[in-house]
From TrEMBL:
This is Cell adhesion molecule 2. Residues 30-109, 127-222, 227-312 form the Ig-like domain. SMART domains: 4.1m, IG, IGc2. PANTHER family: CELL ADHESION MOLECULE 2 (PTHR45889:SF1), IG-LIKE DOMAIN-CONTAINING PROTEIN (PTHR45889). The gene is CADM2.
Length: 394
């Protein structure tokens, strides 16, 4: 018969033993971390054990080859070195990492049974310096251009961004895998116009392996376009004797030099006074005979353009010339006033004939007087006549 004590003994002892094993197995376990390294860099692979009863640690590569067993190097590879070896830690370093080094590395703790932990070594492929294709120099205005930017060797696939003078524009992306890395291509299509001349198109490669210094390529467009011409002038109402400067502002690429000045379809008539300097035509002392249509013409291999300026040389006495207008108006006003006055006088005389002596006297004097005052004076000294008149009218 089993006593309660012995029953307890059988249950408690295994339980105690089990718990001891459990504690040891929890702590005596290798711990590793995934590592990411840029191609060409150095990766440290660390394996730790919290509580180790002097059991050996080992690192092996994705091909299951042992790299280090404790502090003993197992694989002949100069790139792989021991950093630290103790019962608690085994750290090795792999320098000049290549994409082939990527994979699952195993840390083994030689307990019974062996305990392992796996760390993934990620190798980043550095994108190659991008190149811009598809640009011919120069391009003609109106041409369609497709700029292509290609970068290969990235892992993971790189991002390509386009900028037109710092301002981002959208590109069309295409990604192809080649082995472990990617070739990324991005293109932008543009119809070139004159505003694109001198504009920089930049293709920038963004990638986790280039976090601090993205790679980029830039192409500056050179756009050829036919000239466009306009004339600016120095005077609004050029007068005789004035100095006049006309500038032929012509924009074109290549620069349309020199410009050609003509007057009324032929050569400039007076070389001495009409001086052409660069794009400017200066007429030193304007004369009425300079009146006419001045034309400047500029051309390059893409075309010809011209602009015209009609010169009207004002007379310096322009104000006096305009005088007759005022004189005319004044004259008309004077005539109107005179006619009105005449009408008043005629009307006055007509009324006087019907009102009798008083008015007749005045009117009588007015007959041979040059003006009203004289008429009154005359009238005063002619009472006799006035009486005659009075009789006549009554
Ligand atoms: C690797 O470990 C060594 C020694 O601890 C240290 O000097 C080095 O910076 C580490 N390298 C990396 C990439 O962590
Ligand atoms: C582990 O090894 C050291 C010597 O390297 C020794 O002093 C120690 O007693 C050992 N510990 C165990 C638990 O075996
Ligand atoms: C380590 O990397 C592997 C493969 O990429 C992944 O499956 C695993 O979850 C990672 N482990 C940790 C702790 O990040
Ligand atoms: C990707 O592959 C396609 C088909 O093989 C090919 O036509 C294209 O040019 C490739 N693109 C790049 C960026 O390599
Ligand atoms: C304008 O030109 C005519 C003929 O060339 C000349 O006789 C005249 O003196 C000139 N007038 C002025 C203001 O220069
Ligand atoms: C100058 O040109 C105007 C028209 O532009 C014309 O009416 C005028 O008669 C011209 N004067 C001379 C002196 O040629």
């Amino acid at each position: 018969m089993l006593s309660i004590k012995s029953v307890c003994f059988f249950f408690i002892i295994p339980a105690a033993a089990y718990s001891t094993v459990k504690v040891r197995s929890q702590s005596q376990f290798p711990i590793v971390h995934n590592v990411t390294v840029t191609e060409g860099g150095t990766a440290n692979m660390t394996c730790r054990v919290e509580h180790n009863d002097n059991t050996s640690l080992q690192w092996s590569n994705p091909a299951q080859q042992t790299l280090f067993f404790g502090d003993k190097k197992a694989l002949r590879d100069n790139r792989i070195e021991l950093v630290r070896a103790s019962w608690q830690e085994l750290t090795i370093s792999i320098s000049e990492v290549t994409l082939q080094d990527e994979g699952l590395y195993t840390c083994s703790l030689f307990t019974m049974p062996i305990k392992t932990a796996k760390a993934y070594l990620t190798v980043l492929g550095v994108p190659e310096m991008p190149e811009i294709d598809g640009l011919t120099k120069p391009v003609k205005e109106g041409d369609h251009v497709t700029l292509t930017c290609i970068t290969s060797g990235s892992k993971p696939a790189a991002e390509i961004r386009w900028f037109r003078n710092e301002k981002e524009i959208k590109g069309a992306k295409e990604v192809n895998a080649s082995g472990k890395t990617f070739t990324v291509k991005s293109s932008v299509q543009l119809q070139v116009d004159r505003d694109d001349d001198g504009v920089a198109y930049t293709c920038r490669v963004d990638h986790v392996a280039l976090a601090l210094s993205p790679q980029q390529a830039t192409e500056v467009l050179e756009v050829h376009y036919a000239p466009r011409v306009e004339i600016t002038h120095s005077a609004v109402h050029p007068q005789e004797g004035d100095y006049l400067k006309l500038e032929c502002v012509s924009k074109g690429n290549p620069s349309p030099d020199p410009v050609l000045w003509t007057k009324d379809g032929s050569e400039l008539p007076d070389i001495d006074r009409m001086i052409v300097e660069g794009r400017e035509l200066t007429i030193t002392s304007l004369n009425k005979t300079d009146n006419g249509t001045y034309r400047c013409e500029a051309s390059n291999h893409l075309g010809t353009s011209s602009a015209e300026y009609v010169l009207y040389v004002y007379d310096p006495n322009a104000l006096e010339q305009r005088g007759p207008d005022h004189a005319l108006i004044g004259g008309v006003v004077a005539v109107v006033v005179f006619v009105t006055l005449c009408l008043i006088i005629v009307l006055g005389r007509y009324l006087a004939r019907h009102k009798g002596t008083y008015l007749t006297n005045e009117a009588k004097g007015a007959d041979d007087a040059p003006d009203a005052d004289t008429a009154i004076i005359n009238a005063d000294g002619n009472h006799a006549h006035a009486e005659e008149k009075k009789e006549y009218f009554i």
